[in-house]
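Narrative progress, year one. The postdoctoral researcher (J.K.) led the effort to move from monomer predictions toward full complexes, under supervision of the PI. The following entry was the first complex the group processed end to end, covering 455 residues in total.
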Amino acid sequence: MENGSPDAPAERGHWGSKLAFIFAASGSAIGLGNIWRFPMEVGKNGGAIFVLVYILGVAFIGFAVMLAELVIGRYSQKNPVGAIQAIKPGSLWKGIGYLGILTGVCILSYYAVVAGWAVGYLVKTVGGAFKGNVTSKLTAELFTSFTSNPFQVMIFFVLMMGLTTYIISRGVKAGIERWTKVLMPILFVLLIILAARALTLPGAGKGIAYYLKPDFSLLSGKVILFAMGQAFFSLSLGMGTMMTYGSYLPKRDNLVSSAGWVCFFDSLIAITAGFIIFPTLFAIPGTSLDAGPGLVFQVLPLIFPQIPGGYVFGILFFALLSVAALTSTISLLEVPVAYFVDERNWPRKKAAWLMGFITFLLGIPTVLAFGANKFLTKIDFQGKMDFIFGNVSLAFGALLISIFAAYVWGVKKALKEIESGNPKFVLRPVWVFSIKYLSPIVIIIILYFIKTIAG
Ligand code: PHE
């Protein structure tokens, strides 16, 4: 992003090019959500049926909500609270922005802990933990002993939070985005190589069937809720991230194709990750499908010794995963910081460090929730946070954003803004149908199911 001085909130930078925006937004979208959370949710929710609902959700709802966020952001050129204010002054709708700030801080609090795990695994891999005879028993033990050690985890968590806060405080996202351009394609190539190996392991077939052959008898409100939650989480929707990123877009850009590319890249990475995890899990048995947050950390290291040069692959993999997580953590922190900078005229540094510190405090229970503290472990504190903020709150945010774009601002005005950079909006009727009816109705229905799931 071409930014003015980080302390000059009045000067609003813009992305250097359309491609720069697509990379930045993909950097936000692609992260632990694709590689850690997606396989975990697939494993907990019946496999292929979840994948199917997820893909439909991205295509017919996620894309529409993303376009709505981008267009609100670009039109107003403001942070989520300011953006809603600009369109509907003095209304309660700006609550969408406040909800987004809260959600962003809460998601970041546990997200950065898991990002810290990725860095910890990088260190372990360098140290040779996954060389030689790696069994699922070993990887399970390693995961438990690592995540239950609060001192180790704390170091990596602080590192991740510190780095994120530093980057946001300096407003040096531009540098990070330049890396994203190079590193995300490398991550993708790496995933393809690992998937190719996983798919050719003897016994991989069962995993492929689990991942690709939907069992329709497993379809339920719960599956739809988690699949939609995953779609919003993975695409960074429902809390104003894309609104904020859209606010740095110049008017001439084509929002429709940008949104399309981000949805496409993001899903591609997630789906590819599944092609590594499930074939490996079935070919080298011992890990349970509902291993939860440990799933990926326990299964991935099993594949490294199976390929020539696996040691280097392992290192590269966890290094890139850490970078992918970092481009997401900065986008999570950017939402609250942009609010304090734009609306409260705080210096960027103050906003970043204060928000970073609050997030750090909120993250401590998550650090302790994997064995270190009995109570937090028993209530599955991290799982609860992820359910409330990563599923429910994002879905609720996406609902409000859809209603706001479709009925409060109005489809006509939104379309005028979308079409200012894109005179031939072929998908126009699809978008209008989705944002007015499909998205609100589906989200209302799934939120209704929460009662049965949570209770
Ligand atoms: N989309 C990110 C990921 O998949 C996480 C995220 C969620 C980032 C919400 C910003 C907002 O890892």
